[in-house]
């Protein structure tokens, strides 16, 4: 059965996320943006939508002010999926792909949470987790080869921020923080 659906978004005049906030590394500003993204992911996952391409370019800011809200955008490769259904096949941006996609395993909405974890890392720590300039193949190999415990808090940020990011970047998607649980995390 084919279902046609529409997503209607408001006008976002603040530009793309990293273009506007440029690797803040400021935990207070990061927290506000991370909270908005968490709420957006919770809303789409509750509706059965998997975005599949969460990356900084697909997060827009509502205005060019410090009070701007972060908004999810570009649902071009998103999928409607009930909770029991699993997907396969590669889609999204290699640098932000979850390990299960990179390893050609079946996946669900938790791929969005992995990608979000990489963005939260950039916002909180002020730099990307994966090396800049990696090719798509290199990014996918790095993501697929990560082992539990790869993430270390050496930057002196709050335990809550580090715990939140660590919960999003769990290799096993079944242990990864869900959007529904993330909104209640102490960091937010």
Automatic annotation (TrEMBL):
<dbReference type="Pfam" id="PF00069">
    <property type="entry name" value="Pkinase"/>
</dbReference>
<keyword id="KW-0418">Kinase</keyword>
<protein>
    <submittedName>
        <fullName>Pkinase-domain-containing protein</fullName>
    </submittedName>
</protein>
<dbReference type="GO" id="GO:0004672">
    <property type="term" value="F:protein kinase activity"/>
</dbReference>
<keyword id="KW-0808">Transferase</keyword>
<dbReference type="InterPro" id="IPR011009">
    <property type="entry name" value="Kinase-like_dom_sf"/>
</dbReference>
<dbReference type="GO" id="GO:0005524">
    <property type="term" value="F:ATP binding"/>
</dbReference>
<feature type="domain" description="Protein kinase">
    <location>
        <begin position="1"/>
        <end position="188"/>
    </location>
</feature>
<dbReference type="InterPro" id="IPR000719">
    <property type="entry name" value="Prot_kinase_dom"/>
</dbReference>
<dbReference type="InterPro" id="IPR008271">
    <property type="entry name" value="Ser/Thr_kinase_AS"/>
</dbReference>
């Amino acid at each position: 059965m084919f279902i046609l659906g529409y997503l209607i978004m408001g006008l976002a005049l603040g530009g793309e996320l990293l273009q506007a906030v440029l690797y803040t590394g400021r935990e207070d500003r990061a927290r506000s943006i991370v909270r908005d993204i968490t709420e957006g992911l919770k809303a789409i996952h509750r509706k059965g939508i998997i975005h599949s391409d969460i990356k900084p370019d697909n997060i827009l800011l509502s205005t060019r002010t410090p009070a701007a809200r972060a908004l999810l955008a570009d649902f071009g490769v998103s999928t409607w999926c009930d909770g029991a259904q699993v997907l396969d096949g590669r889609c999204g941006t290699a640098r932000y792909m979850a390990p299960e996609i990179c390893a050609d395993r079946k996946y669900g909405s938790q791929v969005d949470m992995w990608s979000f974890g990489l963005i939260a890392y950039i916002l909180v720590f002020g730099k990307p987790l994966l090396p800049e300039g990696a090719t798509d193949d290199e990014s996918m190999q790095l993501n697929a080869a990560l082992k539990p415990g790869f993430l270390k808090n050496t930057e002196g940020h709050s335990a809550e921020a580090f715990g939140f990011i660590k919960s999003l970047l769990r290799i096993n998607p079944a242990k990864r923080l869900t959007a529904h649980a993330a909104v209640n995390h102490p960091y937010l």
